[in-house]
Amino acid sequence: FSANLRARRFVNLSVDYSILSNYLFFSRREVNIPITTTVINPDQELTTNVSTPNQLNDPLQILKIKAENTLRFRKFGLDNTVQLQSVSGNATASYNIPSFITRNSLYFSSEVFKKAMFLQTGFTLKYYSKFNADGYDPLISEFYVQNDTKFGGTPFVDLFLNAKVRQTRIFFKLENFQNIFETNDQLLTVGYPTRDFIIRFGLVWNFFL
């Protein structure tokens, strides 16, 4: 079930309610692997974690509420997106999502150099609340549910600059700008760190208008 409400100049509101039945997911379990080669202790066993499939008997109920709006004042703009999420049911630990997500962009747009160039520059803030993010198993190329460690709760900041001169467009972006001032010790999930500070730039030239 989904519904959308659009109020011009105020907010675009959307509500999505889903019910998942027979939900299939992967989880990790500890198994013992016997050592069959000749060693000092031939009865010794190795312990490792493997991803195993699971299926829920009870349904999961997922509610998502998203609000979007754009504020403008002269040559400045502010785009906002906020989303609230919740999961209910008898097995909520099998479906982990952040309860709060936000994305905000503040920018300046104007024509410069006697209207020869259109310029837009600003920054984007992304944030999601802490939650038990799914781990990734490269052996099966699938995500698995884990409930031991929470990730998130840290903002990500990108600086950007876009310019257009006739049929030529230029973009310049500084991703994860916050990592310039501090050591990057954040993880996206188990064993996978967030990206360090990186510079992206490009040029698009349309030969025909």
Question: What does this 3D model show about the protein?
Answer:
The protein is mainly beta and 209 residues long. It has strands at 2-7, 11-20, 24-34, 45-55, 60-73, 76-88, 100-112, 117-128, 135-137, 142-144, 156-165, 168-175, 187-189, 192-193, 198-205. The strands form 4 sheets. Strands 1-2-5-6-7-8-11-12-15 form a 9-stranded antiparallel sheet, with no helix packed on it. Strand 5 (60-73) and strand 6 (76-88) form a beta hairpin. It is extended and about 80 Å long. The protein starts with a strand and ends with a strand. The mean pLDDT is 89.
What order do the helices and strands come in, and which of them pair?
Elements: E1 2-7, E2 11-20, E3 24-34, E4 45-55, E5 60-73, E6 76-88, E7 100-112, E8 117-128, E9 135-137, E10 142-144, E11 156-165, E12 168-175, E13 187-189, E14 192-193, E15 198-205
Antiparallel strand pairs: 1-2, 2-5, 3-4, 5-6, 6-7, 7-8, 8-11, 9-10, 11-12, 12-15, 13-14
| SSE sequence, one letter per element | EEEEEEEEEEEEEEE
Query: Strand tally, please?
Result: 15
Instruction: Please identify the structural class as seen in this structure.
Output: mainly beta
Rounded mean pLDDT is 89
- In terms of DSSP E residues, the strand content is over 45%
